[in-house]
Structure formats: C-alpha cells, structure tokens
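hey so u asked for the seq, here:
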Amino acid sequence: MLITSMADYSLAVELIRKYEGYSEKAYPDPATGEEPYTLGFGTQFYPDGSPVRQGQRCTYEKAVEYLFNEITVIEAQLRKLKSGFRFLHDPGFGVVYTFSWLGIFSVQ
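ran it, structure tokens below
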C-alpha cells in the first residue's frame, strides 16, 4: 500500500512532529555546529535531493510537505525490505517510519 494521505500515517507524523518539533530556520547539527543543516520537522534534504543550507527557511505548510515526501521515501525503502516487515500492518509501519525518521535505525 502506498501512502495516499497524511491520515494513513498519522501516528508516524504525530510522533515526528512531537519529538522533532518545527523550525522555520535551518539550524546546524547540535553536536558539531556545522552540516548537516535541518529545518521544518527534521528535513535535511529537499525533495530534489539538494541539502538544506545555512540560513534557509520554510513555512509550516512546506515543512509538512517535506515531511510527507520523506515518509514516502522511507516507505519505498521499507517496502524493498518487505520480508523483514511483512508482519506489520499500517499502524506498525507508522512506528517503523518514525523510528527510521528519528535515526533509531536506518533503512538504507
């Protein structure tokens, strides 16, 4: 199943929004004070693949759009690993998306 609306993965979106928070202005990696820069709800790369740069900004609406895009990218990566996640239904995938987003594990 492909994501057809944000409601399909509302648990993932709500967890990401809660724990990542929204930032209008790009900020540097807290550990290094340098790249990668992050904005919105944790976006480090735009949908076209270009990296977020220092000083860039995004509206709340754009941040939600970027979040939706990144969840679809994560979904495609997880679907490639479907043998390991076959047992999960959509709510379970929501949690896996969130863990992937937050860096708890990588799907690459």
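The longest strand covers residues 23-27. The first helix runs from residue 10 to 20.
lmk if thats what u needed
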